[in-house]
Amino acid sequence: MNSLKWADARRVRGLRARACTTVGVALSSLLFSQSGVAASVPWTPSVTARSAIEVLVDDGGLALTVSQWPLPRDAVQKALDALPAELPPALADARALVQAELRAQQSARIGLTLRQRQDALSGFGDDATPGSSLQLRSGELDGPHLAMQLGGRLDPVGDDGRPRATARLDDSAVAVDAFGWQAQVWAHRSWWGTGWQSALPLSNNPPAFDGIGLQRAVASRSESPWLSWLGPWDLDFFLARSEGEPVTVLGSDALISGLRMTFKPASNLELGITRMVQFGGRGHPESFGSFARAVVGANANANSPQEVGLDSGNGLAGYDARLRCPGTFRCAVYGQLIGEDDRKHLPFKFLDLLGTELWSADGVTRLYFELAEVGCRVDWKGSTLAHCAYRNGGYIDGYTASNRWIGASAGPDARMYTLGWIDSEWDSSVRLDFGRTGAYIGKFSDGAQSAFGHVWGLSARRSWHLGSIRVTPEFDWNRVVESAHTRVESRFGLEMSMPLDDLGRLSPGQFAARLSATGEGSTTTRLLTAAALIGGASLFDRAGNSYAYDHRREPALKILRDTGNMLPFAEFGLAGAAWMAHHGSADGDVALASVEAGLTSVALAEAIKQGVDRTRPSEGRGPTDFGHGKRSDSSFPSIHSALAWSVLTPVAQRYDAPWLYGVAALTNVARVTGRRHWVSDTVAGAVLGYVVGDWFGKRADAAAQGPATTLVLVPHGAVMSMAFR
């Protein structure tokens, strides 16, 4: 008997070993496949571009998933590149439309939205935040294994509705690639779902999250035999912190984590799996253990005061699918089931969405009909449970960020029917919504549980392209009939955007040329240009500091602060090492120019600090306060920014690497978000560093022609040197 037990144990151990080997091989294939791809910034298409992508997927065989946005820009580009060069006219037009938007992503743009403050039902592609705003975004800057984009948004009204300049880092991203994956720090909105009007777990209704994450860098079929059956697939994980709730509310400033996988095991079928977790925040522990308990759903979704103390978090999980009709029928059906709770470790109490869409033979027009029921369904016969969806006893404000629903904009307990029309030739869309709402549209309110009513809504968009300028008038109308009264709201808006390079003398390239030592402008012109840049930046001092204070606990900004603060010294050290390694060569001259520029800019910045003596933001005295601290600790200008820009400018100019300016700008972001400097302090440091670095870089170019004498300012002294060739 003992020998039989011993043999059985050996067989069990052998089975476990083979199972572990199989899992290990599969994980290795998952993590280390597609090693030849490059990092790229996240990209979300417009409504018409998404429609065009779906035409290419359904009728042209494009190897891409369509129910998870954003995707890395390069993932979409590689999928387009894999299509045949010659396509039927309808597919060729769809590809051209998407290509045009991808190219626009690579250029710097400025945008202005003029809009009333009323809320409206938002769908895919809408800017859901009410009110006017100013947006600014750089182009994509690509370096070795690195891609970045810097963006910002300024709203004149805060999340609480009070007049207050509110800044955000919308459309900013830093991505680093390795083994076919990219680690990311970003600020953007997401859309996780198959629908056009609603995405139940994560939509564009709240403001952009500031998140960190990991995402597959391509969406093509895996090269691994273990995973090739998935077809085109993508996996995205992120961690961010919600904002905007009063700090005294239980569960305020909670962490939000999401994991989503989409894949196409058949050419006409796309499947998706989603897991969302809301954990931490006021009154809840924040640790890896609490995160793990929230992910597995241990004691999650408290519904009574007794359960709140044991609650690990609020979780949602579920599935979705999109199936193209067979043959030549140009249609598809799609659906999404998201469990608000779990039973036996599987999603339970489902929020559900079901829709169908049809498109024309030329791919220009798309018509869809969609039903979203944002209530907890226990079975498929009875009605949904009220006061369940997006609510949790441990998180008083519910499943929200900045007091806005993270999921469907209709809010909890809603049943919404949507009939939509999209025309890519006219670049327009019209959407008719009707049904029932159980909360205030778009946002959380203390009186949300008494906001039941029947709702009708109309939304219309039409874009015109006037040269490089895009102008989009918009109209939204809602009518909500409640038991006591009827609310009717209309909202008109106008969105405008254009490339920064089309601003003429106000374009970034023109500013750089006027600051350059070889530019056409005089010293007076350079001084006036510097003053204009610093003065313009000072308009954003208060908004930038408010943003830094409100987001001080963001995981993404902590990484940016730590990285940006370290970069100038690492750059200076690398420049010194490069000079010693390549002394006497052209590369060594560039490295020496970076070292000299760094020392000079630090010395000049220290001298300016002594004269200005500006108070730092962390002192709480405002941006116009001077003379209340040690002069050596003056906020103006930023030495870190001056050092970063001065060291990198000669290298960026010699080797035509503009992405290095993006690396330098990370230091500006770090100093502002750490509340060590005002925005204008970092711009002054950047201007000083660029001017000094440009001068030394041009001197290094001239040194190649013969001997050159240099006077370098250093802290507490000066150094004169002569270089011979």
Any overview of this molecule?
The chain has 725 residues and is an alpha+beta fold. It folds into two domains: 47-500, Porin (Beta Barrel), CATH 2.40.160.130; 507-723, Up-down Bundle (Vanadium-containing Chloroperoxidase, domain 1), CATH 1.20.144. The protein has a 22-stranded antiparallel sheet that branches. A two-stranded antiparallel ribbon has the order 1-3. A hairpin with a 2-residue loop joins strand 10 (172-178) and strand 11 (181-188). The longest helix has 30 residues, at 2-31. It starts with a helix and ends with a strand. Residues 1-13 and 15-29 have low confidence and may be disordered.
